[in-house]
Amino acid sequence: LTFQVGFSAADAVTGLKLVEEGVPKEHLALLAVPMVPLQIILPLVISKYTAGPQPLNTFYKAMPYRLLLGLEFAFLVWWAPKVKHEGGFPVYYYAVVVLSYALHQITLYSMYVAIMAFNAKVSDPLIGGTYMTLLNTVSNLGGNWPSTVALWLVDPLTVKECAGAQGHTCTTAAAAEV
């Protein structure tokens, strides 16, 4: 129920912050297209490593890399306004974003396939589908509540600067609107 806490903010907020920094939503949506073949192939490749007696070893090995990718996502958001020019963003920025998302997909699928393999290993074959559904539900809850909390905390934790209003802090919604 808690394994997603470390990277829920990076997973849930990166796309929103990139859009906020000026990356067009349409371009981010198009960057998902090269991920489709990767998403098809990854479970097949990863399942070879999770089929043994300890399927969660893959999960544990992928976690530090996924945490580091959260830092890389923060760097991408910080870097966006620095490389933006009047015509948009350069091609190399999108290449770095695609590479980052591809590495993220590898770690994400490694963890997901490992959890599914573990659930399949510990579920009772007599009630198979029901038990697997229960374990999947608990796993999904563990993935959703940290993202909800991260999205809820984005606004209070975001540093805001008031342009042209000396002596004012933009900490409240009303002050930011003014």
UniProtKB/TrEMBL annotation:
Segments traversing the membrane: 28-51, 63-80, 92-115
UniProt superkingdom: Eukaryota
Gene Ontology molecular function: any one: acetyl-CoA transmembrane transporter activity
Protein name: ACATN protein
Presence of the UniProt keyword Protein biosynthesis in the record: no
Keywords for the protein's UniProt record, in alphabetical order: Membrane, Transmembrane, Transmembrane helix
PANTHER family (UniProt xref): ACETYL-COENZYME A TRANSPORTER 1, SOLUTE CARRIER FAMILY 33 ACETYL-COA TRANSPORTER -RELATED
Gene Ontology biological process terms, A to Z: acetyl-CoA transmembrane transport
Cellular localization per UniProt: Membrane
InterPro entries: AcetylCoA_trans_1-like, AmpG_permease/AT-1, MFS_trans_sf
Source species of the chain: Mystacornis crossleyi
Gene Ontology cellular component annotations, sorted alphabetically: membrane
One Pfam family from the record: Acatn
Membrane topology type: Multi-pass membrane protein
